[in-house]
Amino acid sequence: MSPWVLHVDLDQFIAAVELLRRPELRGRPVIVGGRGDPTERAVVSTASYEAREFGVRSGMPLKVAVRKCPEAVLLPVDAPLYEAASQQVMDTLRAQPGAVVEVLGWDEAFVGVDTDDPEACARRIQADVLAATDLHCSVGIGDTKIRAKIATDFGKPQGVFRLTRDNWFEVMGERPTTALWGVGSRIGARLAGLGVETVRDLAAADPDRLAAEFGPSMGPYYGRLGRGVSSATVDDTPYIPRAHGREVTYQQNLSDPAEIATAIGSLAEQVVKDIAAEGRPCMRVHLKVRFAPFFTVARSRKLAEPTYDPGLIGDTALDLLRALHDDRPIRLLGVRAEMVPPEGGYDDQTRRTARDPRAAG
DNA sequence: TCTGGGGTCCTAGGACCC
DNA sequence: TCTGGGGTCCTAGGACCC
């Protein structure tokens, strides 16, 4: 028996959940996003595999998606429905004998198991999830979290793939650094500037050079990513959130000061509901503004006293906005409340996030 | 083509103190 | 008159992920 990390990822999760209540749409291109209105400012949450064949991708503006695939069926996002389906999936994972489950999002989780046959474990998870929810998933098997996470991509859809120290370079060595979890286009470009193009290059890069470019924490972390080295400990300790925020993109840009004040007040009230449910008051207020056409600014301020008062939070956000505002119309407003940490701080009481650079490799 | 909403973490640089 | 080195706190900004 040896420890394995499994990464379970539901296939086209949101679209698949919608298809369960609309089976007549099966086989047709389906796009879920916004309020389901392609003329509105919104993006694609998930596209079915049929829609992906037309080039539709998550994060794409709905207007663009519809242009690429005019015959697609457009559906509005129904978060509570996906939340409920997600609960069923996670409960199924927790019911696996000996499994430790670390939830990463609605549609994915790490599962830690002790076994001689991780493939059999993976297949049983797929069968149990399908039986309980009618949803298909893919499973990545790894000897570290990052390897398990990346392995899943090679298993999709409905498959199982194993990625370990033994086949890491064979599978990943010649791929671009952006194939790694946590390396996006910006970091990829900066790495390329250092002559680091592939995963193999990154694995071989001098840690001191990486530290000089990215700092003492992130530099060596990227080096470890290149080797597939990360924590292998699956942790089911409940995660304690740091902050709650609300943001809204307005269909019509805001310019009237009274309208703006009302909008911020409403965001502050929603945020207070969330932090009150958490039981920890707001310590710091963050404001995010997107001016038209597409220019985003963020500001924040620490409060003199922690508070649950939406008036105070809203006024602070408004104050931060006034220091920025010069009559440009506003596309988006966001108010975020950073909560007072629990006694003893976060590190003592909560697990680290799965992608935390400090987590030991 | 026109870009959502929910988050997390790291780094740089200034202010301030000893 | 000009000036160090270390530490902490704070804000702004960048990057990434689902």
Automatic annotation (TrEMBL):
Any single Pfam family the record assigns to this protein: IMS_C
PROSITE patterns linked: UMUC
Biased segments, Basic and acidic residues type: 348-361
Catalytic activity, reaction form: DNA(n) + a 2'-deoxyribonucleoside 5'-triphosphate = DNA(n+1) + diphosphate
Entry cofactors: Mg(2+)
Record site feature (Substrate discrimination), residues: I14
Keywords assigned: Cytoplasm, DNA damage, DNA repair, DNA replication, DNA-binding, DNA-directed DNA polymerase, Magnesium, Metal-binding, Mutator protein, Nucleotidyltransferase, Transferase
GO terms classed as biological process: DNA repair; DNA-templated DNA replication; error-prone translesion synthesis; SOS response
Residue positions of the active site: E108
Top-level taxonomic group: Bacteria
Stretch list, region Disordered: 341-361
NCBIfam families for this protein: PRK03352.1
Subunit structure: Monomer.
Protein family: Belongs to the DNA polymerase type-Y family.
Biological role stated in the UniProt entry: Poorly processive, error-prone DNA polymerase involved in untargeted mutagenesis. Copies undamaged DNA at stalled replication forks, which arise in vivo from mismatched or misaligned primer ends. These misaligned primers can be extended by PolIV. Exhibits no 3'-5' exonuclease (proofreading) activity. May be involved in translesional synthesis, in conjunction with the beta clamp from PolIII.
Protein name as annotated: DNA polymerase IV
